Amino acid sequence: MDREPSRQIPSMEGPVGYPRKNGEPVFDAPWQSRAFGMVVNLHTRGLYPWDEFKTRLIGEIAAGAESTASGPSPGYYEHWVRAFMRLLADRQLVSEEELARRVDEFKSGARRQVY
Amino acid sequence: MSDAHEHEHEHDDHPWSPPSDIEARVRALESLLVEKGLTTHDAIDTLIAAFENDLGPMHGARVVAKAWTDPSYRERLARDGTSAIAELGYRGLQTEHVTALFNTPKDHHMWVCTLCSCYPWTLLGIPPVWFKSPAYRAKVVSHPREVLRDFGVELDSDVTIHVWDTSAEQRYIVIPERPPGTEGLSEVELSELVTRDSMIGTGFPLQRSPRS
């Protein structure tokens, strides 16, 4: 039986713990909350065990020079998104190529609405 | 609901400016995942809200901590769970008929939704995946003691286990026993000891404050 997600996610402490205030996540920008929501939602739908994401997140944070031992690193959600992209590619859910194409469409304005 | 939602729609009225790299990446991810049918915008909205605004288990935990510290509240909660919970400001479709189940040294309560996945979101946030699993739903009724063992919960053989089946009209919250050695703690500190599982009956509250 899996124990997720509200137990496993808040148990991430130290550099991998997401920024929180009174136990609730703190988002500095809407994209951070969307990224948070996507990762947790796909996990609750059974697309991957939480550890698969967590391992990649730890890897991304460790690779980032700005990480600290005491709390969330400044680029926390950038790491979060990179870890997510890696997981989606590894799981063959979204390939790097199709993601790159879609990013370009948003950057160029060819595509503007997410909804 | 979420800021993100409103934010995205604002683009209708504002002149377009290119998104930052990270914004473009997150938008690309969401649009691809929705296109592939792996998630929906609404599901993400709901999830963010459950963590951000309603952070569910905290609401239930407040109810439990108040029941531990305020005898008259405990009485009201036992008499009419729905109104006692509404006193704390927690109302809504999914907490309309809530019965509080009080654990004692001889009685352990737990609940399940055998038919689907009815769950008091406003009190407990998003339901854990195992709560919806056929294995939990089937086994908790026939072999509750084994299920509890899967969760690492061992009860003495003289403790009676009561299993309650929740429905669209009837929700439950378990009021676990107050952990020993917590006499000096405030209501807020106590609420931090209350785990989601302890309010479903598949776990116990923490023994000491996470801050200590």
Give the helix/strand layout.
The complex is a heterodimer of chains A (115) and B (212).
Chain A: E1 20-21, E2 24-25, H1 30-44, H2 50-63, H3 76-90, H4 96-108
Antiparallel strand pairs in A: 1-2
Chain B: H1 3-10, H2 21-35, H3 41-52, H4 56-69, H5 71-79, H6 81-87, E1 98-102, E2 107-112, H7 121-124, H8 129-132, H9 134-142, H10 144-150, E3 160-165, E4 171-175, H11 187-191, H12 196-200
Parallel strand pairs in B: 1-4, 2-3
Q: Which percent range fits the helix content of chain A?
A: 40-55%
**CATH H-level name of the largest domain in chain B... which superfamily?**
Nitrile hydratase alpha /Thiocyanate hydrolase gamma
Averaged pLDDT of chain B: 82
Strand order of the largest sheet of chain A: 1-2
Strand order of the largest sheet of chain B: 1-4
What order do the helices and strands of chain B follow? HHHHHHEEHHHHEEHH
- Overall shape of chain B: it is globular
Question: Radius of gyration of chain A from the CA trace?
Answer: 15 Å
**Largest sheet of chain A at a glance?**
2 strands, antiparallel
Calculate the mean pLDDT score of chain A and round it.
Answer: 78
Ends distance of chain A: 35 Å
Strands of chain A, total number: 2
